[in-house]
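To the structural biology subgroup,

Please find below the input and predicted structure for Rho-related BTB domain-containing protein 3, which we are adding to the shared reference set this quarter. The sequence is reproduced verbatim from the submission form. If anyone notices a discrepancy with their own records, reply to this email rather than editing the shared folder directly, so we keep one authoritative version.
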Amino acid sequence: MSIHIVALGNEGDSFHQDNRPSGLIRTYLGRSPLVSGDESSLLLNATSTVARPVFTEYQASAFGNVKLVVHDCPVWDIFDSDWYTSRNLIGGADIIVIKYSVNDKFSFHEVKDNYIPVIKRALNSVPVIIAAVGTRQNEELPCTCPLCTSDRGSCVSTTEGIQLAKELGATYLELHSLDDFYIGKYFGGVLEYFMIQALNQKTSEKMKKRKMSNSFHGIRPPQLEQPEKMPILKAEASHYNSDLNNLLFCCQCVDVVFYNPDLKEVVEAHKIVLCAVSHVFMLLFNVKSPADIQDSSIIRTTQDLFAINRDAALPGASQGSPGNPPLRVIVKDALFCLCLSDILRFIYSGAFQWEELEEDIRKKLKDSGDVSNVIEKVKCILKTPGKINCLRNCKTYQARKPLWFYNTSLKFFLNKPMLADVVFEIQGTTVPAHRAILVARCEVMAAMFNGNYMEAKSVLIPVYGVSKETFLSFLEYLYTDSCCPAGIFQAMCLLICAEMYQVSRLQHICELFIITQLQSMPSRELASMNLDIVDLLKKAKNLSTRSWQKTSQERLHSDQEAAKSLSPAWQPELESRPNPQLMNWRN
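Predicted structure (tokenized):
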């Protein structure tokens, strides 16, 4: 008999993980008198780009002869990168432990908003323990008053932890330190109570099965062999960071140009990517106001490094589209401007490869003081408002996930008019988007916006054959590299949309979701639902076909009107060319 425990979250300092002592789970397994046996760990790769473990597996013996298996997942990336593994971990757990540091409020709210709803859907009446680890920085002695607001600005209050426990129906514990009292008696006592409950439940179920098997005195049913297990399906590896990194080199959809103090062009970039990782660029491009940021250091960094030049006579002013030329930005700091191409490559790669950035800057700046000065300016650019800049150790931060998932992500700009340069018209409603992200993530979109098509010169683009909800899910994948369909029918609609725009990885994700849902259903439930996959697929395609037939005449009329407005030389080409979306749909 065995007990499976899943521990989620990081109870240490988010910026100094390598220097913190042993974690909560490992400390308990090493000190508990009820747990014995040698520890073994199994490390799996998180992604194909960063070699670091997603979870650690500990195996030991508890209560003498009970096998104890613990999966410790300190990084929440597993819910974004490997949905199949994370779902199996939560579904097969007997006890779930969610741990966090009381001094990392930003990570707490990120987990509460993004991952707790996913855990709630996957829970199956298993006990949950919420462990708030650490002593709040603003107090010498921990305050247990739920109305205390002295540390509410920077630390996770007791009230917030209790509210999270109520949402999950969990047991809330505050562990001010990882000593023998809090680990052995406090946390260990609660955990061992739930372990005993799990053993009692499994023993009861085992006895019931034994009684049922002994109750048959007549002809015994035939003993059927268990069917072979299906192989674990894995989706295509993500190329999210490489897509955004390639966008910097292809120079498509550029909307900002940087100049040195001598007014010579240095490098081109994209506002949407820069604003996704930095509040400094949000302030520079008027996405946010100083009142929204409320951080004097970010405002000072923006004023000291950059200045917008609106002089039409400036070199390079003719670049970009005639109606919307790129914004011209002067870089005031000469050393920072000299290394700007390397800094932008660092930002487009995810803003976490600090060692490579420092090495590239050292090749251009021989003086170590100048290198440190430029590195500090980069850290100021990536600073989070209202939070102390803790990016001191580049090697420590190298192991962290990219800022696309940690700081201000591209999801902040999804279906919002900020910095939008294209608007899709779907079923009578409009959806704003950003050409740079669409071109980087979808080859069909890149051909549509850069070829001799009407879409390349239009701001308002109609979309046919797809519902608004499906297209928003498609855009969410392009912006965030993740999607979570609500059901099999929505996954099929999204699969058809992914085939239309030839996004192969999204197709694999939808196929994996559908297959996983069908495999997880018991045969009787599947038969009682009368679920016909072919019928669902036909319904999804018929929905897209009706939408296309309804608007085909409107499409033809709009193309004819557009042809009249163009010069005579463009009209034969417009009349003879097909639309890429229509070609893909017919194929």
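Summary notes: The chain has a mean pLDDT of 75. The first strand starts at residue 2 and ends at 8.

Regards,
Lab coordination
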